[in-house]
Amino acid sequence: MYKDKRFAAIVLAAGTGSRMKSDKPKQYMDLGNREVLYYSLAAFSKSVVDEIILVVGENDIEFCREKFVDEYGFSKISKIVPGGSERYLSVQNGLGAVTEADYVMIHDGARPCITETLITNLMDEVIINDACTLGVPVKDTIKVVDANNVGVSTPDRKTLWQVQTPQCFVYEEIKSAYACMQKELEKYGQADINITDDTMIMERFYNRKSKLIMGDYRNIKITTPEDISVAKIFLEI
């Protein structure tokens, strides 16, 4: 069903990973005998996406080309571009580098446990729903707190999902949403943009809601040193 549809994947790996307490960014930390970033690039390379845009720190571009394109042979990586000071700026740079696409996936390179099956599920859903994201229902009770960390309300857990990546959109729609966001940035400044993922950008700047589809509780984001040990178990390495 994809023969007349072109998919691009933007893999974000420009963060510094300050919470990892490491002398290297978390995306390059050792996970088994490979870098954390290797595993998500491998999953997208094995999938039927047409191209991968890798977004990294400006000083890491040549290293990533030598490591992931030349050494590992991830030939679907068509471009490696520098990221921005914020996540959404890195996505914007990635969108501008896409060669041609009907749909685009956006993935955090610090989520190494993504699978080819989950990627395919997203591709199926975005053709039907135009915008979708992986997620999992929350397991714990969630509290809304005030400025003093005093609980003020308890949302119904049945309505709450923990959002993951990849997130997938119609390419022209998310490009348009980012263009609208850029205009607001120029008008009001960065302080008024409180954006943590791309579904929020689509909601705010394109009025497009995203369908949540079942992800995997193993699709964790490497954030703290303990996550490396957990990811090794999930990846069976």
Primary descriptors:
237 residues, Spore Coat Polysaccharide Biosynthesis Protein SpsA, Chain A, two-stranded antiparallel ribbon, 11 strands
What does the model show?
The protein has 7 helices and 11 strands. It has 237 residues and is of the alpha/beta class. It has a single domain, classed as Alpha-Beta Complex (Spore Coat Polysaccharide Biosynthesis Protein SpsA, Chain A). It has a 7-stranded mixed sheet, with helices on both faces. Strands 2-3 form a two-stranded antiparallel ribbon. A hairpin with a 5-residue loop joins strand 8 and strand 9. It is globular, with a radius of gyration of 18 Å. The relative contact order is 0.18. The mean pLDDT is 93.
Secondary structure blueprint with pairings:
Layout: E1 7-13, E2 30-31, E3 34-35, H1 36-46, E4 51-56, H2 61-71, E5 77-82, H3 87-97, E6 103-108, H4 116-129, E7 131-137, E8 144-145, E9 151-153, E10 161-170, H5 171-188, H6 198-206, E11 211-214, H7 225-235
Parallel strand pairs: 1-4, 1-6, 4-5, 7-11
Antiparallel strand pairs: 2-3, 6-10, 7-10, 8-9
